[in-house]
Amino acid sequence: MKLAIDSSRCKGCNLCMLVCPYRIFKEGKEQNERGIILPELDRPERCPNCRLQKLYGRTLCGLCQMICPDQAIRWDDEAKNERQKVEVEF
Amino acid sequence: MKLAIDSSRCKGCNLCMLVCPYRIFKEGKEQNERGIILPELDRPERCPNCRLQKLYGRTLCGLCQMICPDQAIRWDDEAKNERQKVEVEF
Amino acid sequence: MRHEVRFSGFGGQGIILAAVILGRAAALYDGKHAVQTQVYGPEARGGASMSAVIIDDEPILYPEVTVPDIYVIMSQEGFERYGAKAPAEAVMVIDSDMVEARPACRFVEVKATSEARITLGKVIVANIVMLGAVVATTGVVSDAAIEKAVLDSVPKGTEKLNLAALRKGMELVRVKKP
Amino acid sequence: MRHEVRFSGFGGQGIILAAVILGRAAALYDGKHAVQTQVYGPEARGGASMSAVIIDDEPILYPEVTVPDIYVIMSQEGFERYGAKAPAEAVMVIDSDMVEARPACRFVEVKATSEARITLGKVIVANIVMLGAVVATTGVVSDAAIEKAVLDSVPKGTEKLNLAALRKGMELVRVKKP
Amino acid sequence: MSFRDWYRADRLPTIYCAGCGNGTVINCALHAVDTLGWRWEDTIFVSGIGCSSRAPGYIRTDSLHTTHGRALAFATGIKLARPELHVVVFTGDGDLAAIGGNHFIHACRRNVDMTVICMNNWIYGMTGGQGSPTTPRGAITTTTPYGSGEGVFDLSALAVAAGANHVARWTSYHVKELTNAIDAGLRTPGFSLIEVLTQCPTAYGRRNKLREVSDTIEYLKTHAILLQRYNRLVAEGKPVPEDMFTVGEFVRRNRPAMGVPP
Amino acid sequence: MSFRDWYRADRLPTIYCAGCGNGTVINCALHAVDTLGWRWEDTIFVSGIGCSSRAPGYIRTDSLHTTHGRALAFATGIKLARPELHVVVFTGDGDLAAIGGNHFIHACRRNVDMTVICMNNWIYGMTGGQGSPTTPRGAITTTTPYGSGEGVFDLSALAVAAGANHVARWTSYHVKELTNAIDAGLRTPGFSLIEVLTQCPTAYGRRNKLREVSDTIEYLKTHAILLQRYNRLVAEGKPVPEDMFTVGEFVRRNRPAMGVPP
Amino acid sequence: MSRVEFMQGNTACAEGALAAGCGFFAGYPITPSTEVAEHMAAKLPKRKGVFVQMEDEIASIAAVIGASWTGARAMTATSGPGFSLMMENLGYAVMTETPCVVVNIQRGGPSTGQPTLGAQGDMLQCRFGSHGDYSIIALSPSSVQEMFELTAKAFSLSERYRVPAFLMGDEIIGHMRERLTIPDSVEVAARRRLEPGTLPYTAGEDGIPGFPTFGQGYGVHVTGLTHDERGYPAATNPRLHEKLVMRLVHKVESARKEMADYVVTNPGAEQVFISYGAPARSVFQLLHDRPGEEIGHLRLRVVWPFPEFALGEFPDAKTFLVPEMNLGQVAREIQRHTDVPVIPVPRLGGDLHPPAMLAKALEASR
Amino acid sequence: MSRVEFMQGNTACAEGALAAGCGFFAGYPITPSTEVAEHMAAKLPKRKGVFVQMEDEIASIAAVIGASWTGARAMTATSGPGFSLMMENLGYAVMTETPCVVVNIQRGGPSTGQPTLGAQGDMLQCRFGSHGDYSIIALSPSSVQEMFELTAKAFSLSERYRVPAFLMGDEIIGHMRERLTIPDSVEVAARRRLEPGTLPYTAGEDGIPGFPTFGQGYGVHVTGLTHDERGYPAATNPRLHEKLVMRLVHKVESARKEMADYVVTNPGAEQVFISYGAPARSVFQLLHDRPGEEIGHLRLRVVWPFPEFALGEFPDAKTFLVPEMNLGQVAREIQRHTDVPVIPVPRLGGDLHPPAMLAKALEASR
Ligand SMILES: Cc1ncc(C[n+]2csc(CCOP(=O)(O)OP(=O)(O)O)c2C)c(N)n1
Ligand SMILES: Cc1ncc(C[n+]2csc(CCOP(=O)(O)OP(=O)(O)O)c2C)c(N)n1
Ligand code: SF4
Ligand code: SF4
Ligand code: SF4
Ligand code: SF4
Ligand code: SF4
Ligand code: SF4
Ligand SMILES: [Mg+2]
Ligand SMILES: [Mg+2]
Questions:
Q1: Helices C126-138 and C159-176: angle between axes, nearest 10 degrees
Q2: Res. D32 pLDDT band, cuts 50 70 90
Q3: How confident is the model at residue C43 (pLDDT cuts 50, 70, 90)?
Q4: Which one of A36, F77, G49, G312 has the fewest beta carbons within 10 angstroms of its own beta carbon?
């Protein structure tokens, strides 16, 4: 699964940044056409939900998605053959 | 002082009867012109307020007056020379 | 023929029930038209209570009482407020236990309260005694109609008592009529 | 001569304050008539913000903007909603840091946001930079009037900064004008 | 001056039914006001609509008989506009807690300096006996012909939770305690509620096996349990009969209040 | 199905300001409803007027966006008329406790079977930042430019006093706990209030030194004290910092309720 | 078989509602309407209906609207002060097109006024008492029988047109007892259901959209904000608002003929009384007492939308006399539609116009 | 010396109130009126006045009435939904003859409608929105300057006639900024005090009793029930009720001339616009743009009581065109008073009538 921010919904509040235990969200730099600065993703494949959601059949952690007040965070199915580089940090 | 029931106000509820420690109020018998049966007074001079209000300069007991929901109970000044027969019960 | 019947007394005497029963008798059992009205208001609590019934063979258009021709009076205050000015042509049925005054018009005295208390054992049926009396006096509804109306208006279990009261009222008047 | 000035951008850029200051300058310090209006509504929160000022030598009768002749645009969305249809005769002052598009009419580009952030150290005065630019471009109010209006509209302690921003805006345009 | 001098003699007797507790409560309130030495010229009685709310009309002070449920909002205006006036509100369970519930909790929250005396007779008396928010479960009223099935407000508990500075409950039987509680309310800066359980023989008693006035008085006498005693029983783990109600002073505190005279 | 499927995708993004906590609360509510297995066809969301009250408009179920303060009265009609429907109300501190206070306490008293989620942001957000009954003392709002001087409602305490079966408080920061609390509310027959302290950066934060969204989140995180811990501290006579607020479950009981499906 | 009763107007009203299938009543007691609620409290539980006494009138009408969205035929009853409190939510019912019946047993106003006496002082309030422009339906009964019939009819109209219908009674008719015939069954129009696939606020030619009952999978959003055909808020689009409000008004006003319900007596008359509610009884009496004279009478059973074409039933009219228990509220409306002099015959205080008073007005107008 | 400001209409309204000596404001926020309250919240405490935000609009008007009885000049401000909620207590103010000013910055209705856009949909509501028969005063400003002036005038009229006075503004004027000149002082009529020895509800020839301010030893009882001259309830006496209501209505209606405040342009015209509030601005523009044509304009600053005699200022009128931001509410009233065709020019949706729209109506009416 792949973590994604829906740029048509995100309002740049950075609440996701505040809650992610893996610090996957970083303050963004670029303003989009609506004047909004989206957070950037730092190696989202570290997110346990990206890695293990399919395996466990349910959302893991999910804090960012739950707190995101604009329903802008989702996990997309990845293209079949896409490789995942997983670096687990301790 | 003389205990009196104002017949233009009394509605015959008998609450005075319920509270007087000296049982000075008795159930009445006669209906008045408004169809109301006033309680009767049984030796009202036994009421401490009748006897001692002037002496103490304030209302004594006064329960009947306070509970009377129709402001029908009052103490009148007695005619100067009127005699009082006081029988204190224990 | 339009009859306007005015009932009055004090709260608790069942003035309104009496009026409703009379109206019911006329409207449901005598095939007449009837309108019953009454005075509402906080004032009605302690003081005088009043209710009126209009009975007519034709439909009743204007439903307010104008000049009653029949009065049923159960208290002195009721008399003063609602009966004192009764016109000479009217007839008044008076509970003589409760009312001191007497009107200028024709009147019938009925000791309804004491009859109810003593003979019937329940003071609350004094109103039904009066009802019997007024029907017997005026024939404003039929005896059969008023009986039926009483029966289906009073609480279950009290039918007998009320019927007795009604008949007592009728009897008291008929006895008087020579 | 009636001028209709339309300001637009997104919430937080001070669009409305800029319009109020312009109206104030005209009405209080240039002896002209002015009406300022703005778009309200929950929609204004995230999205485009709009305010308009009408300035006239004569009393302003009809107070709604019909065809603006001056546009002040501070965001792309603002351009799309409120500036895209600007008529050919109009003039538009654009914050080129924020707006990609360009209109069909005459326009002046001002890097108001970056000037405010970098040169003046406070991005929030970008609106005042734009105000300076629009006054310099159109002369719709006098320089003296706009200065006074800025001074009595901004929070105490920020007068200098805002005046600097205003002048910066004027300067940026005047430099451009050959 | 006696409390009797606070009445408008020309309006007595009241419209109340024989044996209605409202008159007793007014006596107690006027007694408390009188002995405190308040001047009638500076005292304003306010009420909504209901039998209980007719009370101010029988009192010779300036008085405002307002709309149903709104007395506290009107009173707030009076008190904030002229804090030097004393403001006392008479209200009923319907007026205060049904339609007026919002003004009730907000006046408590603001802690507006006034004394509110609620004649809680568990019924809408004036309109002939419909259920109220304090009608006990199972009670028969004209709108609960099969017995009331709704929850019941504890008005005093609500006032405490909403922020009032002083809250007490007594009954129309406890005339001395009631008078003292009102006195405490009048003296406490901020909002004071004195809830008075009161008999309504006509609209409530009649339908609920309390036909005689004395039946309700007996009930009030025998079912009231002093708060302190109740708490002791609870603390000791002893049983408290289900149908008892607490009386006494529930709170007396000193939160910041509005409309307190300078 | 995921909670995201309960949204009306065609209405997103919401009108809410960036960083507004309302969206988070809706996520949690929909998550609870979804995991409980409720069907959207049987679930009705109701609200009054306010930013918070816009929530139902973003949810694909049948929904009733009513008048300011009246949501609970409308919801009562729905629930009593068709108890088999699930009824959830979104409301704000102003909607529920200012203009709507009376319906609030009466819905608690009746214990109508519904779940009420109140986004308490201490302010009227929708109208641009006026004081509300939960605005803290001293806070600056457009109607309290010199700092609020009124008392403050404890909404949860009020609900308990008024008779609700289930009352809990959390914050928009505590998403898991909040979701669980809503779940408990949905499961409890009778009235359930879940009070959620929520950031309003635009109308409240901006004026009260909580300019950044993260400031309020930080505040919510550091000032919440679990009820059990608070009670322990109090019992042990230990001091509790003045500006802490309790979170957790305040009551869960089984009083008779109205509108419970047969 | 029909039942015959000797019944109070208010009770007859409740019976009319029950006969019309009313399954939900929410109310708050107020004189002189309380008997309506009390009768519903006694009867509804026995028919698996719901009676609830709310905390006030605002909540009562709110609960009624909520219940209506579940498909219930829902009603409340009140009098002046309570009616005033309902104004905001009545506007909500109009905007959301919620069928509901509101009974107002009018008493003497303004304010607390005369709680126990009759009036017709709220006729313009029911038409204009909520903010904004809108139209509603109002019926006025002149007898106990009509309390029954017109209450049932109010349901029919409200369900059909999706607009609040008011039974504008008065204390006189509400409190009097007369003979009432209760038929076995009463026909009531049902609200039309929303066709699947149609947007919830897309209306056909008659301007009335189908009804998407809650709990049936429509997933409809209902709001008092200006909304588009999906029901979504769209409160800053001027032309959409205009279109919506025009439709709401038009669907009622364009059906004036369909809804019209009046009784014409002596169409050839030059002097014509126009009445509704209790004062009709005084007019009846006058006409009865003067059989020789040709006096016209237009009696409105539906007052709003006002059937202005009914004035045309009296082509020879030289004066319209309008006895009302108010200061001439419907007379104002009549004045808008005719050049014939309109003479209000107001009566305040709680008692009916005595027939003699009408006779005097008649003479004076000659 | 007078002050000149560039100010919003709503703020100007608050300034007008302050200039008129308003010392008490109770309100509840609602778009688009909130700025009135917010300005009062900032200003009143500095002048030892009282600002209080109440729990709702019902409480707001209640507190205003309470404060007024202590002698304060008291005001509230609201918009449609809040105005609807005030209806019951406004009737109470009428019945008890309590001076008070209510500002309604009208927005699009019905119901929640268009909270941020202008309308004039509450003009009949302010006249008829409470139960029972009564009369009130309503003023409508067409500029920021008039927001100031007419608010002050509303106090003057309300104090003098002891009846609620409504400032019926609209979002357009309320939210626009224009130049405002604030004079040093404003003259406001004071309520006449009750003469000692007179009964509190005994009125002189003008029908207005003296005012017995609370806390001054009058010992007055004030009730919304029908009351006698002592102020005591007397709710079952029909003729007393009649007399009371007639006096309440008469004291306002008989002063129509005294209160009238309108502006006449081109009295010789055959085509005459009648306007009030924001649409007057469109009429101004039209007249300005067509200097050659003689187009009449009657602009009402006081709308209620309606100055029907003002129609006579246009003796040659052949049509009255009435542009309103509603479906023709005041046009209804005009229709009652003239045989000249009255053409409503309604505009819904929140934006003003474009002058071209008026021009079209003008052509069409020729
Ligand atoms: C707005 C409004 N709704 C309803 C009423 C009718 N009404 C008058 S008094 C009353 C209830 C009073 O109950 P309570 O306050 O308990 O007073 P009580 O008569 O029992 O003393 C009601 C519902 C009214 N006057 N106004
Ligand atoms: C009767 C009425 N009064 C006032 C308003 C204006 N109004 C809309 S939302 C609101 C306050 C909302 O506050 P809250 O419930 O806390 O919601 P928030 O916006 O903070 O989420 C007010 C006063 C209204 N719509 N209706
Ligand atoms: S929480 Fe959501 S809206 Fe906020 S920045 Fe992150 S993705 Fe964007
Ligand atoms: S699911 Fe948890 S770990 Fe993964 S990105 Fe979101 S917050 Fe971080
Ligand atoms: S308490 Fe008063 S009213 Fe009752 S019987 Fe005694 S004297 Fe009469
Ligand atoms: S004052 Fe006391 S003792 Fe005397 S009569 Fe009254 S109750 Fe009895
Ligand atoms: S109805 Fe009840 S409360 Fe009202 S006066 Fe009678 S006894 Fe008292
Ligand atoms: S104003 Fe406050 S509550 Fe409303 S959307 Fe913005 S942040 Fe949220
Ligand atoms: Mg009560
Ligand atoms: Mg809020």
A1: 40
A2: very high
A3: very low
A4: G312
Cα nearest neighbour of A11 on chain F = F18
**Domains of chain D, first to last:** 3-176 (3.40.920.10)
E94: domain range?
A: 3-252
Residue C75 has pLDDT above 80, yes or no: yes
Structure token digits, residue F262: 């047969």
Concatenated DSSP letters for D30-51?
SS-EEEEEE--SGGGTTSEEEE
Q: Do chains A and B touch (3 or more CB pairs under 8 A)?
A: no
**Chain H partners of F15 at a C-beta cutoff of 8 Å?**
none
Residue A82 lies in a domain: no
Q: Would you say H135 and H252 are in contact if contact means Cβ atoms under 8 Å apart?
A: yes
pLDDT for res E140: 98
Rounded Cα gap, residues E206 and E201, in angstroms: 6
Residue in the block written with tokens 């074409």: G309
User: Is the per-residue pLDDT at D142 higher than 60?
Assistant: yes
Q: How far, in Å, CA of H192 to CA of E145, rounded?
A: 53
Report if residue E203 sits inside a domain: yes
Does residue D43 have a pLDDT over 50?
A: no
Backbone region of residue G333 per phi and psi (left: phi > 0; alpha: psi in -120 to 50; beta: other values): alpha
Does any domain span residue B69? yes
CATH number of the CATH domain containing B63: 3.30.70.20
> What is the 8-class DSSP label of residue H149?
H
Please name which of G365, G305, G304 lies closest in space to residue G340, comparing C-alpha atoms. Answer: G365
For residue D44, name the pLDDT band (cuts at 50, 70, 90): very low
Query: In chain F, how many domains are there?
Result: 1
Domain count, chain B: 1
Asked if E143 is an interface residue toward chain G (Cβ–Cβ < 8 A), one would say yes
Residue F40 resides in a domain: yes
In a domain, F259, yes or no: no
Question: Cβ of B29: how many Cβ atoms within 10 Å?
Answer: 8
Q: How far apart are CA A46 and CA G358, in angstroms?
A: 91
Query: CA–CA separation, E103 vs F101, rounded Å?
Result: 8
Q: Which residues of chain G have pLDDT under 70?
A: none
B61: left (phi over 0), alpha (psi -120 to 50) or beta: left
Query: Is pLDDT above 90 for A1?
Result: no
CB within 8 A of H337, min separation 6: which ones?
Answer: H306, H308, H311
At H245, give phi and psi (nearest 5°).
Answer: -65, -40
Max Cα–Cα distance, chain A, nearest Å: 38
The residues near E10 (Cβ < 8 Å, ≥ 6 apart) are: none
Which domains are seen in chain G, by residue range? 1-259 (3.40.50.970), 262-364 (3.40.50.920)
In the chain, the amino acid numbered C161 is: L
**Which of D24, D64, D65, D146 would you mutate first to test chain H, the one with the most H CBs within 10 A?**
D64
Q: Which residues pair with G223 in a beta bridge?
A: F65
Q: Ligand 3 pocket, A73 CB below 6 A?
A: yes
CATH code (residue F239): 3.40.50.970
G359: nearest Cα among G297, G285, G292: G285
pLDDT at B60: 87
List all residues 6 or more positions away from E216 whose beta carbon is below 8 Å from its beta carbon: E21, E199, E200, E201, E204, E205, E210
Q: What are phi and psi of H102, to 5 degrees?
A: -120, 120
Q: Which ipTM value was assigned to this complex?
A: 0.97
pLDDT beyond 60 at B87: no
> How many angstroms does the Cα of residue E180 sit away from the middle of ligand 6?
19
Q: Residue H265 forms beta bridges with which residues?
A: H297
| Tokens encoding A74 | 């989702």
Which of H248, H33, H238 is closest to H134 using CA atoms? H248
Flag whether F8 is in a domain: yes
- Nearest-CB residue to H50 (from E60, E81, E102): E81
Share of chain F above pLDDT 70, in %: 100
